[in-house]
User: Which sequence fits this backbone?
């Protein structure tokens, strides 16, 4: 009987829906919960590509595996539908975001269903639905009342292509992470969330979660905690971790931002012009520009260690937010400072001496700098001490005791800028009243910013609905399209009743996705419109048992979600600090050796492959390509071979009425238990490709066996093969389980098979035995035995077929090719 994949796959997808196989009837009354979460996609195109199929299938396999281990698996799906990705696509196709999403999300669901994923479609989350973003807005008001949301004028990252500001995390190498355009700097008044207040906890908690080391390291580097000293050079504070070189500081350099905000108008006109021009460059251009530029400000400050007056320069290679925005120039021991000093003919004073006299001579001749440790020199009482040991400690102690410096911890992390001057996002639920502002009234008192006049929208008035407008395209004028609609922004003050205005910026889409995992289990409950997440259900299902997603969100979504969960923990809304204790980061699929992209024309649409080969074949193929955390290469030729394997499996599993010969029973039983062990171990560590390889070997063992009378062993082997294949090929195995093997219930709720170690016969190797190069017999040995030449040759000598050729012969030489041949030269 031919495997009709289209009929069989549709049949079981409909049957699973009818039976609610993947949907828990009552989210509260369940046992052995397992929350298996896949990072939901942006519906910012016509549909999924094969890369999505690769990652989502990897997650689905593990969920099915856990269900067969007796877990009640909750595996939801939704859409990260707000934000610039979706809006830009809507603009591209000439549709409103609402209309575009109604079409694309429907197609996304059809594709995910066609892959056979076991999602609970009764509990879907779409972040642009008012019943969801009502609670995103509530979350913002919670932050505001807790003193974690504030508004200030700041120099921000501006993408001229996307026409909106970006958070620091959304700027990659000086470019917009979405479109790749070089980012500019602008002064705008924006809303921020105080993620920096959580820097230490975000850093320390990394030790308590099971995440890939590369993602932990990315977050550590982004948070960038540094223990240093803040040293006063007259009225300019410098933060450094290289305080031991202070005796070699011959000038100070400040960033253009620092000069304009703190030193003007006490500096030269030329330095102000330089700073203004420098700010037209991107931060990345400033970092990577090898040609050092700068301008003398005309100011001098006192080096507190040497008591020398040293000049202050402004230079674009110093970036705002790095330390205090001012750095001490130690040209003998810093390459950038060295280049700058050479350019402007500034003194170069070595304060570290090296065992290599050539290095010392080169530094004295102003030919080079060195950042290596050595012995302090030209450093007063500290001469001779090691620069990275006792000398460093002694200089630190002296600076602090003399009140020339204070210990200061600095971070790379900056507060999260969440304002967006676009249309497609959750409106920020804030109202500003000028009347209250004049009186100094406001909802909160804050010493860090002027919060007068600002009020949150009360929970009973949420959501602040995003109106449907036609002029939603961004103009890049510093305000979003909602600022053109009086019917949206005109309102009344919730306190005094006077005229007031709503905020017209919308929230960064990463706010939407920072809490979606909490919403899923509550969807569909009787109180879902009254609470963001039900406390009882949340306690039952959260934190997430396994989070499956991409490493590209290391310092975006994953960092923001951790922060927001910790805020909710502090506000006693949840009972756990970390939302994802266990994270698996999948790799990125490529096509014919290159990253999939529309510009290269190599994006693979899974639909055509599902139609031609079937979802199960596609699932097997993309999982077999390579490690789940690698970069598997999709090639059309390979899937045809997997289709042949699928058909072989189908034919084998339908040959249910035969038996197996007695001589093959032990080999089949051994291989069956060996395969159970291998597949179980491999799935547990997401080595799906090697698990499939093991299944292929088992299929070959069964295919090559002789027909015989032992039907019980054969039936057991087919049942075992079916259950082991079930996570990979859900449709084919369901058809076999129910219609061929006549088992009750679904294969996906059947118990996972257990192996018996005692029934696994060690793998046997056949070794040919030659005498004077002629084949005289063969012996079977285990893999382990094949490593021992003495044991192999002894077994070969006593073999009945070989022994008769050795009678009355003297063995002059023995040649052993490990695991293959023994040759006796007689």
Assistant:
């Amino acid at each position: 009987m031919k495997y009709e994949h289209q009929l069989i796959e549709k049949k079981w997808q409909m049957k699973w829906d009818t039976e609610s196989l993947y949907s828990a009837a009552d989210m509260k009354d369940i046992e052995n919960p397992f929350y298996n979460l896949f990072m939901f996609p942006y519906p910012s195109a016509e549909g999924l590509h094969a890369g999505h199929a690769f990652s989502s299938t990897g997650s689905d396999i593990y969920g099915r595996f856990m269900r067969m281990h007796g877990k009640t698996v909750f595996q939801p799906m939704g859409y990260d539908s707000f934000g610039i990705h979706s809006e830009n696509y809507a603009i591209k196709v000439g549709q409103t975001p609402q209309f575009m999403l109604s079409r694309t999300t429907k197609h996304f669901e059809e594709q995910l269903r066609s892959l056979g994923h076991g999602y609970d479609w009764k509990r879907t989350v779409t972040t642009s639905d008012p019943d969801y973003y009502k609670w995103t807005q509530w979350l913002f008001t919670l932050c505001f009342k807790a003193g974690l949301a504030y508004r200030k004028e700041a120099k921000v990252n501006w993408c001229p292509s996307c026409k909106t500001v970006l958070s620091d995390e959304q700027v990659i190498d000086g470019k917009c992470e979405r479109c790749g355009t070089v980012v500019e700097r602008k002064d705008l008044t924006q809303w921020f969330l105080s993620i920096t207040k959580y820097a230490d906890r975000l850093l320390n908690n990394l030790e308590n979660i099971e995440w890939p080391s590369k993602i932990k390291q990315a977050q550590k580097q982004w948070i960038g905690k540094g223990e240093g000293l803040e040293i006063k050079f007259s009225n300019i504070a410098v933060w450094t971790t290289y305080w031991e070189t202070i005796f070699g500081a011959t000038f100070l350099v400040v960033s253009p931002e620092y000069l304009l905000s703190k030193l003007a108008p006490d500096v030269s006109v030329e330095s102000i012009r330089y700073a203004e021009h420098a700010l037209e460059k991107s931060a990345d251009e400033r970092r990577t520009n090898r040609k050092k530029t700068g301008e003398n400000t005309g100011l001098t400050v006192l080096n507190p260690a040497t008591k020398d007056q040293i000049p202050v320069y402004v230079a674009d290679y110093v970036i705002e937010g790095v330390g205090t925005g001012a750095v001490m120039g130690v040209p003998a021991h810093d390459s950038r400072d060295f280049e700058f000093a050479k350019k402007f003919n500034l003194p170069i004073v070595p304060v570290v001496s090296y065992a290599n006299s050539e290095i010392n001579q080169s530094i004295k001749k102003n030919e080079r700098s060195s950042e290596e440790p050595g012995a302090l020199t030209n450093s007063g009482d500290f001469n001779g001490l090691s620069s990275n040991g006792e000398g460093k400690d002694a200089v630190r102690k002296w600076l602090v005791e003399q009140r020339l410096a204070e210990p200061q911890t600095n971070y790379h992390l900056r507060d999260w800028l969440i304002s967006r001057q676009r249309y497609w996002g959750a409106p920020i639920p804030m109202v500003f009243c000028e009347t209250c502002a004049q009186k100094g009234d406001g909802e909160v008192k804050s010493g860090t910013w002027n919060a007068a006049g600002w009020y949150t929208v009360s929970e009973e008035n949420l959501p602040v609905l995003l109106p449907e407008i036609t002029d939603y395209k961004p103009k890049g004028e510093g305000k979003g399209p909602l600022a053109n609609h009086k019917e949206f922004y005109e309102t009344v003050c919730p306190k005094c009743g006077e005229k007031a205005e709503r905020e017209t910026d919308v929230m960064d889409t990463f706010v939407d996705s920072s809490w979606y995992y909490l919403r899923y289990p509550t969807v569909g409950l009787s109180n879902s419109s009254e609470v963001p997440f039900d406390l009882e259900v949340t306690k039952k299902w959260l934190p997430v048992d396994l989070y499956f997603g991409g490493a590209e969100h290391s310092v975006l979504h994953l960092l923001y979600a951790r922060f927001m969960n910790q805020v909710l923990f502090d506000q006693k809304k949840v009972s756990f600090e970390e939302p994802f204790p266990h994270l698996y980061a999948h790799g990125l699929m490529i096509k014919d050796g290159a990253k999939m992209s529309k510009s290269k024309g190599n994006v693979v649409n899974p639909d055509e492959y599902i139609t031609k080969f079937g979802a199960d074949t596609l699932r097997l193929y993309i999982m077999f390509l390579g490690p789940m955390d690698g970069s598997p290469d999709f090639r059309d030729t390979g899937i045809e071979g997997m289709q042949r394997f699928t058909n072989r499996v189908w034919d084998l599993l339908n040959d249910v009425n035969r038996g197996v010969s007695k001589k093959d029973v032990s080999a089949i039983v051994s291989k069956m238990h060996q395969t159970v062990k291998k597949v179980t171990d491999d799935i547990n560590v997401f080595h799906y490709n090697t698990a499939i390889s093991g299944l292929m070997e088992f299929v070959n063992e069964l295919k090559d066996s002789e027909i015989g009378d032992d039907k019980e062993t054969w039936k057991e082997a087919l049942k075992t093969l079916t259950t082991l294949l079930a996570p990979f090929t859900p449709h084919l195995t369901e058809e076999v389980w129910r219609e061929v093997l006549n088992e009750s219930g679904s294969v996906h709720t059947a118990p996972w098979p257990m192996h018996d170690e005692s029934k696994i016969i060690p793998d046997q190797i056949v070794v040919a035995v030659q005498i004077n190069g002629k084949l005289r017999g063969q012996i079977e040995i285990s893999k382990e035995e094949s490593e021992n030449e003495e044991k192999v040759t002894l077994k070969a000598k006593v073999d009945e077929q070989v022994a008769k050729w050795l009678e009355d012969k003297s063995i002059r030489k023995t040649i052993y090719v490990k695991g293959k041949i023994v040759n006796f030269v007689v």
